[in-house]
Structure formats: C-alpha cells, structure tokens
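Practice problem: predict the structure.
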Amino acid sequence: MNPQGGQYLNKAAVFSSLGAARLSQLALGCSVVAMVSHSAGYSGGSYGVFCMAVWCACFGMTTVVFFLDATRLHACLPVSWDNLTVAFAALATLMYVTASVVYPVYFVRAECPYAGCEVRNFRVAVTVCSIAGSLAYGAEVILSRAKPGRVVGYMATVSGLLKVVQGFVACIIFGALANGSEYSRHVATIYCVVVYAVCFAMTTVVVILTVSGRTGCLKLPFDRFVVVYTLLAVLLYLSASVVWPVFCFDRKYGSPERPSSCPRGRCPWDSKVVVAVFSFINLALYVADLVYSQRIRFVTQQPRV
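Answer:
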C-alpha cells in the first residue's frame, strides 16, 4: 500500500488528450516497424536504414516516455520532464516527416516490384502509418505548446521549439557537407562550416541545459544568455548565407549551373545547393527565434543539489 494514500499510476497518462496522442504514436510506430520487418523491407541503401532507424528510435523512446509518465517514475530523474518530452516530440515530428518523404521516394512505385504487389501494398501502408505518426507527434507538440497565461517549460515555447528545428536543419546541412560538397577548397567555405558547427553546438547546449533543468548554473541570466546567443547566431548565419553562395556559385570560384556530367546523388553542386538553401532557412529560423525571445517571460530553474 502507498502510506501517503496517493496513486502509483498516472491515469492522465492514458485518459487524456496527451495520453491518446502517445498511445497513437505507440500503435502507429509498432505497426510501421512490424510491416517493414515483415514484408515491406528497407534494404537497398542508406536511405532505408535511416528510415528504419528513425521509426525504431522514436518507438523505443516513446515507450520509455509513456512508461515513466504512467508510473510517475520520471520524478526520480534529474531532468525537466516537461521540457524533455516536448523537445522529443518536436524532434520526432521532424524525423517522422523526413522518413515519410524519403521512404516512398526510394521504395514505393506505382507498378508492382519483382516480389509482387503485396510488397508494394505493404510499403504504401508503411508510408500512410508514418504520415499518421507524424501527425500524432505533432499533436503532442500542439497540446504541450505554451499558451497565454499558462506557465510551461522553455522548450514548449515558440523559441524553444525553434531550437529543435534549428538543430535539425543544421544536421541536414552537415549531411550535405559530408556528401562531397568540396567545402575545403576555399578558406571562406571552411569559415561557413565553422559557423554551422558553432551555432549547432550552442543550440545543443541551450537544449541540454533546459532539458536537464540546469539553466540556473549559468553565471549570466538564462534569458539574456538566450537573446545574446541568438543575436550572435543571426549575425554568423547572415555572413555564411552570403559567403557560401558567392564561393560556390560565382564563376570565379565555382559554377552557377549544374554540370551536365555530374552523377545523380553524388554531385558536389547539388550538395552546395542544399547547404545554401538550408542556410537561408536556418537564418530565417534564428531571426524568428530572436523576435520571439523578446516576448518570453523566463522563470529561472535552480540547479538540483
């Protein structure tokens, strides 16, 4: 018996809108993994492995989150639970959306493959469930999101959610850089890579401090730290967004047009375009973050002893 007369299990983990969203995530994630393992398949390159890794990782983490929430054991962890769960839900939404685009592009065809129409049908079902899973994770983000008059963790604010998106976009940039982008040919493009790495590292530090509940450990007030860092990131990304296209697409340093002999999937010019596009996207995200950071009322968390 519980000597304090409380309940060990959290009924709201099941009988609530948030609980329904997480149960949907578990059901859809389990369905996707089962169908891919049974018949749909994911072999044929790194793209299939990536999609399977996303679905398995999200399903495993969602299982842990649901179990800890239902048993109230999350109170034993040295983390800010609300910040952790909303940050994970936002990241899972982005990962699921990516997998929902990548998998059908590389595995779904209108005609039946050599293995028969059953495989194609399973792959279509996997895509549908993956899209539904994206909506389920997105629903959790919406339900956890900050609303006027409601005190929530930093990661549930627009600024906090933008941090997750910024980190995700930076990972796309790093992937394009690693895919034969030839960034080492010029000092200026190496500078751009340093900018991407520094901003990503600082964004990661902000997320880790928030999720771990250690924002009070900073010598500088957390709200000022966030604003100063975001302003610095805007300036750095602004410079990189100008420098990268000049040294990659100007005729003096590169090529403004895609070479006709460039192989599909391994073309340095394509990688340079991806880096340029997502540099501007992240610049816009950091500008929006800077604007929203001015409107947040911070409640500093004291470090746990």
